[in-house]
């Protein structure tokens, strides 16, 4: 995956045919981020940033996405995605890195949804952790069945993350990062 655009991403692929043996690359541009977990004002910088990992995965980092007991916050990321001509892709998993500080029997849950514009959900998953727990909490949402982007067209991708904490205000959880695993490719 390659990142593009003024806020997060740089181009790396064109729609021209690829030389034999060349690995395709996605061209991704973050269009917007909305929600209580990624709130920003008009004309201000998005409260997320992203970079490409050496594996080809894309990691989105959040600033200020935290929630205290008996509350929730969410963030929906909207991105345009272009693929090289003659190829389609799937994202095999969406991984999340969170931190929690939960008192005994109190819980945090993280719901992840991802979809291609105009298509059904490709990922829909909720994971929960029960206290007492303090420290890192990692989740992974896998599409079942695997969903391929439509061939011959570029579509937008949306990802929604919702973090909830049940319990006293001393229990907290925060979403640190969402990583889109390196795409799997096939010819159309």
TrEMBL record:
Protein's recorded name: Secreted protein
Top-rank taxon, per record: Bacteria
Pfam family, one: DUF4360
């Amino acid at each position: 995956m390659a990142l593009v655009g003024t806020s997060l991403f740089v181009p790396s692929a064109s729609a021209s045919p690829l030389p034999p043996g060349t690995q395709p690359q996605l061209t991704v541009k973050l269009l917007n981020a909305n929600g209580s977990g990624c709130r920003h004002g008009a004309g201000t910088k998005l409260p997320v940033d992203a970079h490409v990992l050496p594996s080809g995965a894309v990691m989105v980092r959040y600033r200020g996405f935290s929630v205290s007991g008996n509350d929730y916050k969410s963030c929906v990321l909207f991105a345009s995605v272009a693929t090289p001509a003659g190829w389609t892709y799937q994202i095999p998993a969406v991984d999340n890195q969170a931190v929690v500080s939960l008192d005994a029997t109190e819980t945090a849950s993280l719901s992840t949804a991802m979809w291609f514009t105009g298509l059904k959900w490709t990922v829909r998953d909720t994971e929960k952790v029960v206290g007492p727990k303090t420290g890192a909490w990692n989740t992974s949402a896998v599409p079942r069945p695997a969903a391929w982007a439509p061939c011959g067209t570029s579509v937008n991708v949306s990802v929604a993350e919702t973090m909830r904490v049940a319990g006293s205000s001393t229990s907290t959880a925060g979403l640190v990062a969402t990583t889109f695993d390196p795409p799997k490719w096939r010819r159309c």
